[in-house]
Amino acid sequence: MREGSVAVVAGASGYIGRHLTSAWRAAGVEVRTIGRGEDADACWGDATALADVLDGSDLLVNLAGRSVSCRYSKRNADAIFSSRTETTAELGRVLAGVVRPPALWVNASTGTIYRDARDRPMDEAAGDLGSGFSVAVARAWEHELDAAPTQVRKVALRMAIVLGAGGGAVNPFINLARLGFGGPMGDGAQVFSWVHVDDVARAVDHLADHREISGAVNLASPHPVTNAAMMRAVRRAFGRSHGVPLPAWSLEAGARVIRTEAELVLKSRWVDPRVLRESGFVFAYPELDDALAEIASRTRRGLLPVALG
Questions:
Q1: Cβ(8)–Cβ(59) under 8 Å?
Q2: Structure confidence by residue, pLDDT tens digits, 193-229
C-alpha cells in the first residue's frame, strides 16, 4: 500500500491483523478497523458504521474468524463456521451500497481447502479440494465471497500456516523443541506449507498493484518442507540438537488435553503459490531457515504463550 492510501482491516485484533495494521501505518497508510471491541472504528452488525469506514477506502482485508485451534465440538464448529461466513456476507451486503467502495477486497481463506497431498503440489488451477469439516468451512467461506453482490475485485487468499515472532502458529513448535519433544510428528512425511507474516503484508500489497489478479490465490513459500524437516529447522534455530518424535497416537491424546485437533499438524498441506509466482511476486522469506532465524532473533527465552481452544 502506498503512503496516503486507505486500508480497512476486519479482524484486526488477531495476529495477522495486528501485523498488517502496524506495517501499513508505519508506511503512512491510513488504517481503519472493523471488529467487536471498543477500539474498532466500526463494529459488526452496524451497517451504517461499516459503510462509513468502507466508503472512500482503497483496500479491504477481511481476516475475521474464530481460531481453529480448538476441539471441533458442535458449539466450536458452529462458531468457526458462522464467524467466517456471516462476516463475509455482511461485508458483501454493505459494499453493495457504498458509493466509493475499495478497488480490492482480499478475504482470508486457507490452504487447508486442498486434500491431504503427498504426491504433488496443489495450485489454484489444478489443486484438488479435500473433504471434511475444515474443507467445508473453507468452501463455504469462499462461496460467500463469490456470491457477494458487489463489483469490487475479490481475492480469496488461501494462506498456508503463518509464522512470525510474537504469536501465530510457531509458538507450539518452539515450545516442543525447548521441552525436548521437537522430533517428527506422526511419520514426519506430511508436507508443511508455510509463509512468514512479513510476506503476508507484502503479498497483499502485490495483489493491490496487480489488477489482473482475482479469485483464489495461494499464499505459501515456494519452498515447503516435510514436518520432520520443519522440526529439525526449529531445533536448529532455537539451539536444540535432539528432539523426541511424537507418534500420531500421542498427538491425538495431547490434542484432547489442550483442546485442539491433531489434524492441524498431521494433515499434509502442499500449497503452490502459482498465481503469485507467475505474476512476479518475490518472497522476502522463501527459505524456512531464514524465516526461523528472523523469528528466533525476536523471541524471548522460555516457554511461549499458546492459545488453547
A1: yes
A2: 999 999 999 999 999 999 999 999 999 999 999 999 9
Beta bridge partners of 219: 159
Nearest C-alpha neighbor of 6 from the set 43, 48, 47, 41: 41
Over range 64-91, report the average pLDDT.
95
Range of the domain at 48: 6-297
3-54, pLDDT tens digit by residue?
Answer: 999 999 999 999 999 999 999 999 999 999 999 988 999 999 999 999 999 9
- Cα 191 to Cα 79, 118, 174, 220: the distances in Å are 28, 7, 18, 12
Give start and end residues of each alpha helix (H) in the chain: 15-26, 47-54, 74-95, 133-147, 170-178, 197-209, 227-237, 248-257, 263-266, 274-278, 288-297
Cell numbers that stand for 149 in this block? 453482490
Is residue 202 situated within a structural domain?
yes
Q: Which residue has the cell 495461494?
A: 218
Q: How much is the CA Rg of the chain, to the nearest whole Å?
A: 19
In a domain, residue 303? The reply is no
CATH at residue 118: 3.40.50.720
pTM of the model: 0.96
DSSP conformational letter for 67: -
Residue 21, SS3?
A: helix
* Exposure on the CB side of residue 9, measured as CA atoms within 13 A: 23
For residue 174, which amino acid is it? I
Q: DSSP string spanning 69-136? A: -S---HHHHHHHHHHHHHHHHHHHHHHTT-SS--SEEEEEEEGGGB---SSS-B-TTTPPB--SHHHH
Instruction: Please return the burial class of 308, using the count of CB atoms within 10 Å of its CB with bins 0-12, 13-18 and 19+.
Output: exposed
The CA-based diameter of the chain, rounded to the nearest angstrom, is 59
Domain count for the chain: 1
- Type of residue numbered 275: V
